[in-house]
Specification:
Layout (H helix, E strand, L loop, with lengths): L3 H4 L16 H7 L3 E3 L5 H18 L4 E2 L8 E5 L5 H6 L11 E8 L2 E8 L2 H16 L8 E4 L5 E5 L29 H13 L3 E3 L12 H15 L4 E5 L4 H4 L11 H17 L5 E4 L16 H12 L5 E5 L11 H9 L10 E6 L23 E6 L15 H9 L11 H5 L10 E5 L15 H12 L5 H12 L4 H22 L30 H5 L5 E2 L16 H8 L9 H4 L2 E2 L10 H24 L7 H33 L14 H6 L11
The structure holds beta-D-glucopyranuronic acid.
Length: about 700
Amino acid sequence: MMTASTARAEDGYDLWLRYAPLGAATAAETRIRELVSPDDTPVQTATRRELQRGLRALSGIAPARADRVNRDGALLVGTPASSPLIAGLDLDLEGLGEEGYRIRSAVVGGHATTVVAANSDVGALYGSFHLLRLLQTGQPLEDLDIREAPRLALRVLNHWDDLDRYVERGYSGQSIWDWHRLPGWLDPRYTDYARANASIGINGAVLNNVNANAEVLTPMYLEKVAAIAGVLRSYGMKVYLSARFSAPMEIGGLATADPLDAGVQRWWRAKADEVYALIPDFGGFLVKANSEGQPGPQDYGRSHADGANMLADALAPHGGVVMWRAFVYSDEEPVDRAKQAYNEFVPLDGRFRDNVLVQVKNGPIDFQPREPFHPLFGGMPKTPLMMEFQITKEYLGFSTHLAYKGPLYEEVLDADTHVRGPGSTVARVIDGALDGHALTGIAGVANIGSDRNWSGSHFDQANWYAFGRLAWNPELSSRDIAVEWTRMTFANDPAVVEPVVGMMMASREAVVDYTGALGLHHVMDRGHHYGPGPWVEGGPRADWTSVYFHRADANGIGFDRTRRGSDAVSQYAPPVAEIFDDVTRTPEKFLLWFHHVPWGHTMRNGRSLWDELVLRYDRGVNAVRDMRATWAGLDGRIDPERHAQVAAFLAIQQAEAQWWRDASIAYFQSISGLPLPAGVAPQAHTLEHYKALEFPHAPGDTQ
Ligand code: BDP
């Protein structure tokens, strides 16, 4: 007879919460025989259900429920307030805050017990997920003494989801928010979404696109938002909304959205009151203003601070925050686009209200496969800065390319801004340690959609997972996270873990290599951003073209951002600026980001830049071929359904890596006029062939 679990196809729906049965031996050692956990609040109920579900599935036997510890192998969960037994243990819970927890092996009532204790229900929920993770990854449950608290306060997903369920830069189906059927129908997916987020400590979600539709703030939609909030609340998540700055005009009938206008201020205050009457724990607003055509305070001659503060004042009485995005570049300013956010925001440092965070993308351009860290990190010490990472892979091959972004996130978080001497890492800027901010946060542009496997591909689930784990602790290692994820998602078998983690850790660098290494950026095709387009030129503005960014000509290639060029280097602290300004000291991974160099420029390995660039394209394609071979070798060790899809996607990736490589070489060779290095195969088609390709229905494009 087929059991429920073997009958269920491994279609990826269960994410890293598969709770695949542990082997008999392991199960016996780690078996939890009894569960003592309170069940009086929604969060407590969610916690108990998750533990019952996980423990039963992992060990094959449901633990007995009890009010006190009766036997060895008990699990005791709660807070001093919710559990007299926990209160009686007198554990030191100081410093754990509202979301931290302890997991301890203890003797309770004479019995060997595992204790998950916290100051709040949500802390106990997070601790319970941690315990389940220990079991899932085959860790022993003996002598535990774990203390965890999140380093960042706001750990939120940003959904770029429109109200018609289209997802901007989304490659995994439609929006999971089924607005039309809300609030009457609460898709069970919302609960599973919240479970997955809580399991990695994500505590908030901005439900709608930063290119916002004001309608989400109308009573009809707020009721729907409240329904979603009701589901997420039981898992410690708050909802936030992207607010369109001109909403007072569009849905409020006002003649202006000027933030200094008393009527506009009143309108937003009333709107905030209305929102909080429906959703008492509403998180706040995310705003994209005066960027890429969005309305904003500058339309009225006001500053970003004026706009943010007006909204902050409306939210403050309710405890809400404003997350004001720094992804701005002016419509007219003819300076290097990489400099614009810094130029606009640094003068405003110290002028924002206490409940405003400025949300900064990881790099100064736009989520490229590799960028140096954004110079705003460290540049605005008086303002809490939130990190914005992209989880969806707009520039890293959509959902079909295997690209684990953990190393990208890690590279940025570990980058040293040097603003307060060595060790002033980006992680320490955003976690508030460097400048003493208590309000801290990180956002990830979600890759979640209606696809059965949530993220469009099985491996893209790892990017959601890694974002959450790094949001909890930005100093975790991306490799450790990959190991954890692989064990839970595929298997604990080292014959699976080692090769899969090897693939993951090499994957992002492969994308960098086959799309354009050595600091090249913004070389994708126009609009949809699918595939190569280093030839893109013309159109509405220069800084939406590739030629603006790579500046290749017969003599050389690269964007001169040194003091002799656009001087973007001077936005970094002096020790960093010195390095980026000096072509001999700039890390080669950023060479063409900061320098325009001749094609014959000698690289550190002695090759010419041209030869090295071409060889990097080949290296990228070869890395994908290696990933395919590794994956093929895992046939039989991974369930057939997931194995087949990953294999098919890797085949797509290999073909597309080759396309990127061939098209890019064809183009750059037409500029450099140089021969390919010895032994390198010529591209398959002419440059004209690649230029003529069109993809009118590529997913995720701006609508
Ligand atoms: C770019 C996307 C665009 C977004 C914009 C943003 O191409 O769709 O609206 O960033 O972050 O990455 O506002």
